[in-house]
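lol so apparently i was supposed to do this last week
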Amino acid sequence: MQPKSILIKNGYILTLNSKREIIEKGSLYIENDTILDIGKTKELKGQKADLVIDASNKIVMPGLIDTHTHLAQALIRGCADDVSLVDWLKKYVWVLQGNFTKDDGRVSAELCMAEMIRTGTTSFIECMIHTRYGFDGIAKAVERVGMRGALSKIIMDSTGYADSADIMYPGMVEDAEAGLNETDEMYRKWHGKANGRIQVWYGLRSLGAVTPELFKDVARRTREKPTRMTMHLGEVIDDVRYVRENFGTNLTTFARQHDLLGPDMVFAHGIHFEDSELKVLADSKSNISHCPASNMKLASGFAKVPQMLQAGVPVSLGCDGGPSNNTYDMIREMRLAALIHKSYVNDPLVVTAEDAIEMATLGGAVAMGIHDRVGSLEKGKIADIILINLHELGLTPHTNPVSNLVYSGNGEYVDTVIVNGRILMQDKHLLTLDEQTVMENAREHSVALMERAGIENKPKWLVR
Ligand SMILES: [Zn+2]
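anyway here it is w/ zinc ion bound
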């Protein structure tokens, strides 16, 4: 039975409010899906809750928001490691995903969500759901499991990737009209449903897979509905070559010419922008989902995150997918975001622990268009909250818990997860998914999928 009211008391609360206040020995009172009160424990008087959670020695903070994830890639975790990007796509990821069944799509989404909840993610943007993964089944899983998710239907009408023509694996090719129709149908059925937790977006496939006319058409449809859209942009240098050779311009001018700029757009990766383009992103309030682990693993390059933050570009964080990260742990992602740029620009002052936490919470809420309700802990906001145990060897001592969380933390330290006032994990036990079943299903489906796709995955060393 889910409690109707929850009192979290004696926690170390990171509010992420406009003053970025931290409340030591703080309490937070939730009724239904809303935070009704927050302050020092001794000041919150007379709140009688159905459930009282003692958060002594715990960080209490807004749930983490992963703004670039592939639910369907959890099932192919570790299936394409230490290979070039072209091999990664052509020999492994597209072939495996092009052999997915709808059951695989659901099983993978459940595995992914179980890991996200366990590691403190409460909301996510799934960037491209192929028809063969079963949109409806995935939406039902999100409804059941209790997370907040933007589900983007993949849209494409060509078989290229960046400046390479006709390279898409046949099982990954979709018809534009069918994709648009399915988005309409899923939008009617799911947008705003599950107590407002589910959104239905357009997931434009990368440059080279979408013609200029279709880009414009989707931008128009997005604003008509209204909803939001996301696409990979500038992940590879080939994207830059593609727009230069075919349109004689740069990425942001191409985006402007095709109505793709705006606060309703989330560009994933956004690595290969010129310095002069950052102002265009900032002025148009176009969101960037920064994916440091994926960018390092696939040797994509370094996004100009310090310069983006300086220029006022809205930046959030994404874990990308099982074959590119290979985890869905946003705390590890915050750590990478705070580390890699220091080394790259030779300045230990860029991207602080506080910057990383802001990107993973407030930045994510902006990217999802829900920052009026989610992303900080304040009176009247929705209760998307996580508790992180500080009584862990790897976090001890914790004279500065903010710093420890980012530089010493990982998702295993997350203790309790609440979304929309509903507890999804308590004392590290998942309440809306059976962890054993999720893992068994995933192992079974992954073996069958590898067989069907004709792909073997073994260590490079001799296995006896
Ligand atoms: Zn991606």
